[in-house]
Amino acid sequence: MIKNPYRGKFVVIEGLDGSGQSTQAALLRDFLVKKGYKVVLTKEPTLDSKAGKKIRKILDKKIEIKPKKLQELFAQDRKEHLENLIIPSLKEGKIVISDRYFFSSFAYGAADGLDLDWLIKVNKEFLLPDLTFILKVKPEVCLERIEKRNKERTLFEEKEKLAKVWQIYKILPKKFKNVKVIEGEKSIEEVFSQVKNIVRSKQNI
């Protein structure tokens, strides 16, 4: 992975489906904008690339594909995401907050039976975030939240699969710098308070 060489800062929020990462990413954007920072909020997979559009269909169970091919699509979408949005924004000195990044590929890909070292290798040319949050929420709690959305469950939204995904997420802070695990089962405000305190403690953000 490549350390961020640009003026801007790159922050990622991760977690199981239903853990609340999209909510926390939006709250962090609003908090930083109020502080006067220029912020870009984005998410993966994107819907901008051909690969991203295909990923969406796979996750919605409209197309079937082998796990390895799926992760190659994620890497292609990520490459375009970095080139077209993330890196240009960082060069301009903006803070980029991404709802999911390559940590999702590691956790979900390994839970799908792929080798974690291979997954890391596929993503090794990409930027390492300056700060990553992983929201810790039990699979059953995530599924309760997902049920309330009244939408069809996507490919990984089953308890056994999410439990496997969490086992991988748990080990990522030991493998990568600046990865923080946050207790995600508290109220939205309490979870964000943890995020905010860590962001404030980083003098360069």
Automatic annotation (TrEMBL):
This is Thymidylate kinase. PANTHER family: THYMIDYLATE KINASE, UMP-CMP KINASE 2, MITOCHONDRIAL. NCBIfam families: DTMP_kinase. GO terms for molecular function: ATP binding; dTMP kinase activity. Belongs to the thymidylate kinase family. Keywords: ATP-binding, Kinase, Nucleotide biosynthesis, Nucleotide-binding, Transferase. GO terms for biological process: dTDP biosynthetic process; dTTP biosynthetic process; dUDP biosynthetic process. The lineage of its organism: Bacteria, Candidatus Nealsoniibacteriota. The keyword Kinase applies.
